């Protein structure tokens, strides 16, 4: 099992970091977690794409995590040679999001069906709204969802992917909480969205200060990893994106709390999940 960070960025546009998105390459195929800005460009670089995703998992419906869902929706449909429903698994609200996405794309759907004689079907989706428990099981790969805490964004979920005795947790945006702890128990890897609290406090911009109360700081992320005996902590969704030469400061803040391996994500970073 491999983890490929497709986008390590945040809501803030960045020339080097696509929006939040992580690909987990498994024996059951490519599983995509969130689909932020630029996801299909990065997926192409990882030899994947809309037609290859076995399922798309959403952690929550904040715009930065779903910006390019419409691109996946369209490419999955318009580039297929036969009906190929897009499977989307996400929190309550996901079905309405897909309905709204389809409604937004209605003119485009009409144009393409009118133009291509061999495209005779509309895009289709298979949507599962989930809260906790096993949400995907194929080819010896299991994905379990659990509730996270990103209030006032509700509901939100994190996911644990297991293949054989290897496991990786995709936290989504959350503060430390029991639901995330349960997902993380003895996981080989935790991919955790993270903000740098000391920087944001220094900046003192009200709109940015607001984000402190519903994300994990580096110390929070390291605490979750440590408390749950995680092997490797991957920090992603970095706010603010680290200036060149300051990456070690993020690692050091985490290492003060967590004894395991700490990795700062960059786009297309590819990691083998090992025990
Ligand atoms: Zn969020
Ligand atoms: Zn976010």
Task: Give the tags.
single chain, Metallo-beta-lactamase, Chain A, binds zinc ion, 10 helices, 29% strand, 7-stranded mixed sheet, alpha/beta, 275 residues
Describe this entry's structure for a reader:
With 275 residues, this protein is an alpha/beta fold. The protein has a single domain, classed as Ribonuclease Z/Hydroxyacylglutathione hydrolase-like (Metallo-beta-lactamase, Chain A, 4-Layer Sandwich), CATH 3.60.15.10. 29% of the residues lie in helices and 29% in strands. It has 10 helices and 14 strands. Strands 6-5-4-3-2-1-14 form a 7-stranded mixed sheet. A 7-stranded mixed sheet has the order 7-8-9-10-11-12-13. Strand 12, helix 10 and strand 13 form a beta-alpha-beta unit. The radius of gyration is 18 Å and the shape is globular. The mean pLDDT is 97. The chain binds zinc ion (2 copies). One zinc ion binds next to loops.
